[in-house]
Design a protein that fits this description.
kinase activity; 14 helices; WH-like_DNA-bd_sf; Arc Repressor Mutant, subunit A; 408 residues; binds zinc ion; 5-stranded mixed sheet; single chain; WH_DNA-bd_sf; globular; 19% strand; Nucleotidyltransferase, domain 5; alpha/beta
C-alpha cells in the first residue's frame, strides 16, 4: 500500500475521511495546533475533532507536539503531522542553474540540495539531462519510490499552473505537450508547475517573514525582477497565473531593448541580467574595479553575486551600480505601495543580498515618490530564507496540492 493510496484510503471513509484530510492539511499549514484551533478551523464539534485526531494518531499520521499556551486552565495538547509520510521532489529552474531537493510532508529537506549548471532556453532536449539527475536523486535517497507523491517545479516566465504551460522556456515545437505533462510522462507521478516568484511568495507566507500577514509583497530581485502578491492571506496568481510580471512594465522611454521584445522594461535597468551587463560594459570601457580580479579576468563570469561581493569589499564601481538599481527599484516599488497598500515588502534574490547598498537608495526613492501616509504603514525587510526560498515554495505548493486533490 503506497502512501498515496493511504490518503485515498482515508478519503474512502467518506465524510469523516474528508474531514481527516482537511485536519491534516490544516496541521500542515499551522505546523501544530490545539484541538480547539482545529475545531474552529474545520468547523467540527470538539468530540468529533477529538475522535478524528485520535484515529489519525493511531494511524501514525498525527503526533503530539508538546503543550500550547493556557488561558488559565490546563495547557492544551498540540498536534502536528508526523514526518516522512510522503515526499515531494522539488525543482527550482533558474536562468543558469537548476536546484533540486527532496522534502517530506512536514517540509523537512531530505539530504542535500543538488545544484546543476544549466542554461535555460526553449530547448527541451537538453532539459532531459536535468530530469534524469532529478530522478537519480530520488533513486539514491532512502525514500521508497511509492512514497513520492509528486514533483513540484518552478521557473521564470509566464507559467499557467492550471494548464501546465510555460510560454517562455522549454517550449519545444516538436512536442506540443504542456511542460507539466511532458515532465509527468517522464517521472510517471503527478507534476505541478508555477512561476518562480509565486513559489517565493508561498514560501514567505508559509514559513518566512510573511507568515501570519494578510497583505504583503515579495519582490524577487534576481536575474530578473518579479513580484509575488499576497492579499487576504493568499498568494494571488491572477487569472492565468501571470500576475506580478513587473519586470516588463515600462520604465524608460526609448530605453534599451528587452529580451521580451519591448523597449525600456524595468528589467533593462534593474535586474541581475542588467546589472551584469552594465558591469561588463563599464569594465570593458575602462572602469576601474576589483571585479576584474574577482572574475579572474574573465568578464563573462561577472554575475550579480560577484558584484555584491565587490561592493562588500568597498569597490566604488560595484556600489554605484547597485545604488542605481536600488533607485530604479525604489521608484517602481513606490507605484506598488500606492496600489497595494501592503503592510510588508520582502526582498529576495541575489541582488537583494546586497543589503544596504540596495535598500538605502531604494528607500530614498520610495520617500521621494510615495505618499507619506501610505509609505509609513509599509515595512521593508530582506528575506531570511536564502536560496532555498523557491524550493520551499515548490514543496509547500506540492503538499497543498496533494491534500487539495484528495478533498475534492
Ligand atoms: Zn521586457
Amino acid at each position: 500500500m503506497t502512501q498515496n493510496n493511504a490518503l485515498k484510503k482515508i478519503k474512502k471513509e467518506g465524510k469523516s475521511g474528508i474531514n481527516k484530510i482537511r485536519i491534516l492539511h490544516y496541521l500542515f499549514k499551522l505546523g501544530k495546533a490545539s484541538v480547539h484551533q482545529v475545531c474552529t478551523a474545520i468547523q467540527l464539534s470538539a468530540p468529533t475533532t477529538l475522535a478524528l485526531l485520535s484515529e489519525l494518531v493511531n494511524d501514525s499520521w498525527v503526533e503530539k507536539k508538546g503543550l500550547g499556551n493556557s488561558n488559565g486552565g490546563r495547557k492544551p495538547d498540540l498536534f502536528g503531522m508526523a514526518a516522512g509520510k510522503f515526499y515531494i521532489l522539488c525543482i527550482n529552474i533558474e536562468l543558469f542553474t537548476v536546484h533540486i531537493s527532496l522534502f517530506d510532508n512536514t517540509l523537512a529537506p531530505q539530504g542535500k540540495t543538488v545544484a546543476i549548471p544549466y542554461s535555460l532556453s526553449k530547448d527541451r532536449e537538453s532539459f532531459q539531462s536535468v530530469l534524469k539527475q532529478a530522478k537519480e536523486l530520488v533513486k539514491n535517497s532512502n525514500i521508497p519510490q511509492e512514497k513520492l507523491a509528486g514533483v513540484s517545479m518552478c521557473l521564470p516566465g509566464l507559467t499557467n499552473p492550471e494548464t501546465g504551460e510555460n510560454f517562455g522556456y522549454l517550449t519545444d515545437n516538436n512536442d506540443t505537450r504542456p511542460l507539466r505533462d511532458y515532465c509527468a510522462a517522464f517521472f510517471k507521478v503527478p507534476v505541478i508547475i508555477q512561476n518562480d516568484v509565486n513559489a517565493a511568495a508561498l514560501s514567505e507566507l508559509h514559513c518566512g517573514k510573511a507568515k501570519g500577514k494578510k497583505n504583503a509583497l515579495v519582490l524577487l530581485m534576481d536575474w530578473g525582477v518579479g513580484l509575488g502578491i499576497i492579499m487576504d492571506g493568499e498568494v494571488r496568481k491572477g487569472a492565468s497565473g501571470f500576475s506580478g510580471e513587473i519586470g516588463h512594465i515600462p520604465f524608460e522611454d526609448n530605453g534599451a531593448l528587452c529580451y521580451c521584445g519591448k523597449h525600456g522594461c524595468l528589467e533593462t535597468v534593474a535586474s541581475g541580467v542588467a546589472l551584469a551587463k552594465m558591469a561588463k560594459e563599464g569594465i570593458a570601457a575602462g572602469q576601474h574595479s576589483i571585479l576584474k580580479e574577482l572574475s579572474n579576468q574573465e568578464l563573462e563570469k561577472i554575475e550579480p553575486r560577484l558584484i555584491v561581493e565587490a561592493a562588500n569589499k568597498g569597490d566604488l564601481f560595484a556600489i554605484k551600480l547597485l545604488s542605481n538599481v536600488g533607485s530604479n527599484i525604489g521608484k517602481s516599488i513606490s507605484t506598488l505601495i500606492q496600489i497595494f497598500n501592503p503592510e510588508l515588502i520582502i526582498m529576495e534574490g541575489r541582488i537583494a543580498a546586497a543589503g544596504e547598498y540596495i535598500t538605502l537608495p531604494m528607500l530614498q526613492s520610495i520617500n521621494t515618490y510615495c505618499m507619506l501616509q501610505i509609505r509609513e504603514k509599509t515595512e521593508i525587510v530582506s528575506s531570511d530564507l536564502g536560496i532555498s526560498a523557491n524550493l520551499l515554495g515548490c514543496a509547500v505548493e506540492g503538499v497543498n496540492h496533494f491534500f487539495e486533490e484528495h478533498t475534492k
